[in-house]
């Protein structure tokens, strides 16, 4: 896959939500969730007992879109691949801190800790959106 332009990369990193799609026994689902980008990789987080994570464990194929812009100046990317649980403790700590900084200004913020627990809390799961392919646009 070719690299994103620097303007699109900056735009995507500043967005607050990714729309993640998966399938379960009832059909296709799409929901907006928080995300972070570490390196060139996309990550989301959720509760370890959430319906979306239970479905993704059974059927890890996912798609996601990060987009936005003002009328006549749209940007975004659309990717597909697999959802994979992050089990590496060092990367989990890095993601925990990245979510805290992005959404609360600090991983020590009380609301961040309320949502995610402590850094290795087993009730939270971080998910690597492992891209197989995708496309993006700027117009």
Q: In the CATH classification, which architecture applies?
A: Roll
Q: What is the makeup of the main sheet? A: 7 strands, antiparallel
Find the CATH topology: Pnp Oxidase, Chain A
Which consecutive residue ranges, at least 5 long each, have pLDDT under 50?
none
SSE arrangement, N to C: HEEEEHEEHHE
Percent of residues in helices comes to 25-40%
The rounded Rg comes to 15 Å
Into how many domains do the coordinates divide?
1
The first-to-last residue Cα distance is: 20 Å
Q: How many beta strands in the DSSP annotation?
A: 7
Mean pLDDT across every amino acid position = 94
**What is the CATH H-level superfamily?**
Electron Transport, Fmn-binding Protein, Chain A
Number of DSSP helical runs: 4
- What's the assembly state of these chains? single chain
As laid out across the biggest beta sheet, the strand order is: 2-1-5-6-7-4-3
Q: Tell me the fraction of residues in β-strands, as a range.
A: over 45%
- The CATH class designation is Mainly Beta
Structural class: alpha+beta
Report what the structure shows.
- With 139 residues, the protein is of the alpha+beta class.
- The protein has one domain (6-138): Pnp Oxidase, Chain A.
- Helices cover 29% and strands 45% of the residues.
- The protein has four helices and seven strands, in the order αββββαββααβ.
- It has a seven-stranded antiparallel beta sheet, with helices on both faces.
- α3 (89-104) crosses α4.
- The mean pLDDT is 94.
């Amino acid at each position: 896959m070719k690299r994103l332009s620097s303007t699109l990369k900056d735009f995507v990193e500043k967005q607050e939500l990714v729309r993640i799609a998966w399938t379960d026994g009832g059909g296709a689902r799409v929901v907006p969730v928080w995300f972070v980008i570490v390196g060139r990789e996309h990550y989301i987080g959720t509760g370890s007992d959430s319906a979306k994570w239970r479905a993704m464990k059974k059927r890890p194929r996912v798609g996601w879109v990060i987009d936005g812009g003002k009328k006549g100046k749209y940007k975004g990317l659309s990717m597909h691949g697999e959802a994979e649980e992050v089990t590496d403790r060092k990367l989990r700590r890095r993601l925990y801190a990245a979510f805290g900084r992005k959404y609360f200004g600090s991983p020590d913020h009380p609301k961040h800790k309320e949502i995610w627990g402590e850094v290795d809390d087993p009730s939270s799961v971080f998910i690597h959106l492992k891209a197989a392919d995708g496309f993006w646009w700027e117009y």
